[in-house]
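# step 3/5: fold
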Amino acid sequence: MGAFIATLGLPPVDPFNEVLRARLQARFGRGDEYAYRVPGLVKVVQAAGRVIRGPEDRGVVVLLDDRFARPEVRRRLPGWWGEPLRLGHG
């Protein structure tokens, strides 16, 4: 059993999310991270959770987007996921 996850799952840029981003930027200095990156990665972790539901489960989750290897993204993923295996060129 497995899942292929193609993107970071970022919310759309729309008036609501832009107001949220601006307020979070003013309050915490991390508007993009809190309004876009964190909610998107919550979706990614939820998708993986459909494959691996408990400690006895085994499966494969393939993160296709190169952005998953970026440090600012890796920090927001569960630490027990390990390091990404990079295949292909780039």
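# step 4/5: annotate
The radius of gyration is 15 Å.
# step 5/5: archive (pending)
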